[in-house]
Specification:
The protein has about 600 residues and is mostly beta strands. It is about 10% helix and about 30% strand. The chain binds MU-OXO-diiron and calcium ion (3 copies). InterPro entries: PhoX, TAT_signal.
Length: about 600
């Protein structure tokens, strides 16, 4: 169908052209401000950011490094305030410390790194009539969670021998969270966050001789002698030869109650352990929560968890206490995708098969439920702690790096960003299939999954590819059937979210088309389905994260600006956001329409 008429509601703006400016470039007619930067004080007593006098103590009260996922929640009783929860995925020491020596980090630098990881909870306020959004330091709800904050382990693997260490013989109390990537907000008002590339913090994998342990470590990418940041020199728990089970205490989804700064955050073992990218909830037709979850690694899997308990509505103490157990009991599944076109028509180029669509059916394969394992040769505890190995045995479909996932609040269809997989089709690796149809896939795709009866609890589904990303002039791309001469080029979809109109907003990480990463909006239904439009671009070296699209505001986390090979404090690749002579600082930005109007109206 020809694309006549105006863009879909919510997407009526002039797209930003691809560019390589060291700036956040927003669509015409919009303004922006930096809401909060790495190092800005948020807790009482925290000092202003001073890169020459940074300390672990200061950092523990300041906004952390490399903001990724963001959640925004209304603050009850405070109309002008919203609560921002931001993850701090990892640290870039060469861009944080002048003269940093990667071979000889100091204890203080390691401890600053611990304090710069985790999450921040910070209240924000709109400056009346100005459109600007600013952080409210010292608000009673502000909180920092770091790599040393105590967590409670819950669910079926809590207390397992596989989780016990000399510091924690109970296997129920872990210090800290690491590499928090995507996340989600539950219908009962808590925030979830996935621990992703936790393997990089652990040393000594090469020296483990027990074959079972070595195979487990290898499947999770813990194979090196020293770790990248050398934290094992300052805390034995990061050395698997000294504390073999510490690594099993990372790679979980965590849940925090952002409205109770005194609450103990939790690690949820029922959701399995892998490089958790995101955890996005939906309810089954009978009111039980379901979480969709990706494992971001080349050829890894897509999962869901279905709770066995119904959510209780309201904010009573009984409801809150009940709802905090919802993610501890249920069934963990992994996805198997089957194409409906003959395999001979999937040639690895991205060319559409004869039925005109990459599509098919699929099933959810159960892995474990409570203390019952469905995987021969593995106990339920082993399934939860070594979920990747369980999914290998179950015959799940090897995907092109499942990143964020988002169910459409309008249609219930579930969207999965498969960011790229340059190893697809290589010798000894899985070849292209209908759900992952390109070999050497540089640009990624977005898959749309519809549960049977549109019930999140179903064990069967259908699916089709919504976007096969890249340069629209490349014949191996697909934009939901929309004319390709009218869309913005897009590469490496990562974090995704929906606006109130049902448009999908996609942020990218690793744009392989030679221009900077950015944020894009696209209609998912109607005659404009597949019309991708770029809303903003981010500075040199940055990825675009956390997008939140509200009626009159778009929030984006600009993660790792200036991250380029060879870059350092002395030789910066980016001077965003504060200009030459200042450290580049990962920051959250807010964008609004200069005339105060509705975004995309
Ligand atoms: Fe932290 Fe898979 O992105
Ligand atoms: Ca097909
Ligand atoms: Ca990501
Ligand atoms: Ca999301």
């Amino acid at each position: 169908a020809a694309a006549k008429g105006r863009a879909a509601r919510g997407l009526r703006f002039s797209p930003v052209a691809p560019n390589t400016e060291d700036a956040v470039v927003v669509a015409e007619g919009h303004d922006q401000n930096v809401v909060i930067r790495w190092g800005d004080p948020i807790l009482r007593g925290a000092p202003a950011f001073d890169p020459d006098r940074q300390s672990a103590k200061a950092q523990a009260g300041q906004f952390g490094y490399n903001n990724d996922y963001m959640a925004v929640l209304d603050v009850p009783g405070e109309r002008d305030h919203q609560l921002l929860v931001a993850n701090h995925e990892y640290t870039d020491e060469v861009l944080m410390f002048s003269g940093y020596d990667p071979e000889n980090p100091t204890r203080e630098q390691a401890e600053i790194g611990w304090a710069a990881h985790g999450l921040s909870v910070v209240v924000t306020a709109e400056e009346r009539g100005l459109g600007r959004l600013t952080a409210v330091p010292r608000h009673r709800l502000n909180r920092r969670i770091t790599a040393t904050t105590p967590f409670e382990v819950t669910g079926p693997a809590a207390g397992s021998e596989l989780l016990r260490t000399s510091a924690d013989p109970t296997g129920r109390r872990v210090l800290g969270t690491l590499n928090n990537c995507g996340g989600g907000i539950t219908p009962w008002g808590t925030v979830l966050s996935g621990e992703e590339n936790f393997n990089q913090y652990f040393a000594g994998g090469d020296a483990v001789t027990d074959p079972v342990t070595a195979a487990r470590l290898k499947r999770y990418g813990i194979t090196g002698a020293a770790s990248e940041r050398k934290w094992e020199r300052f805390d034995d728990r990061f050395d698997v030869t000294k504390e073999p089970n510490e690594t099993n205490r990372f790679g979980w989804v965590i849940e925090i109650d952002p409205f109770d700064p005194e609450s103990t955050p939790r690690k949820l073992t029922a959701l399995g352990r892998f490089k958790h990218e995101a955890a996005e909830p939906r309810l089954t037709t009978d009111g039980r929560p379901v979480l969709y979850m990706g494992d971001d690694e080349k050829f890894d899997y897509f999962y869901k968890f279905v709770s066995s308990k119904r959510m209780m509505k309201g904010n009573s103490r009984t409801a809150r206490e009940h709802n905090r157990t919802l993610l501890d009991e249920g069934t963990l599944y992994v996805a198997k995708f089957t194409g409906d076109s003959p395999a001979t028509e999937i040639d690895g180029s991205g060319k559409l098969p004869r039925d005109g669509e990459f599509d098919g059916a699929g099933e959810w394969i159960p892995l474990a439920s409570g203390d019952r394992s469905f995987v021969p040769g593995m106990t339920a505890e082993e399934v939860y702690v070594f979920t990747r190995i369980a999914a290998d045995k179950a015959g799940a479909t090897k995907m092109d790096r499942p990143e964020d996932v988002e169910p459409s609040p309008r249609t219930g269809r579930v969207y999965i960003a498969l960011t790229n997989n340059t190893d697809r089709g290589k010798a000894g690796k899985a070849p292209a299939d209908e759900a992952n149809p390109r070999n050497a896939n540089k640009h990624g795709q977005i898959l749309e999954l519809t549960e049977r009866w549109n019930n999140a609890g179903s064990t069967r589904f259908t699916w089709r590819l919504f976007l096969v990303c890249g340069d629209p002039e490349d014949p191996g791309t697909y934009f939901g059937g929309f004319p390709k001469d009218q869309v913005s080029p897009i590469s490496c979809p990562d974090n995704i979210t929906f606006d109130a109109y049902g448009n999908l907003w996609i942020s990218t990480d690793g744009n392989a088309l030679g221009s900077h990463d950015g944020l894009f909006g696209v209609a998912t239904s109607g005659s404009r389905r597949g019309e991708v439009k770029q809303f903003l671009t981010v500075p040199t070296g940055a990825e675009t994260c956390g997008p939140i699209v509200q009626e009159r505001r778009v929030l984006v986390a600009v993660q790792h600006p200036g991250e380029k090979d060879g870059a350092s404090v002395e030789k910066p690749a980016s001077t965003w956001p504060d200009g030459p002579g200042k450290l580049t600082r990962p920051s959250v930005i807010s964008v609004w329409r200069r005339d105060g109007g509705t975004i995309g109206a």
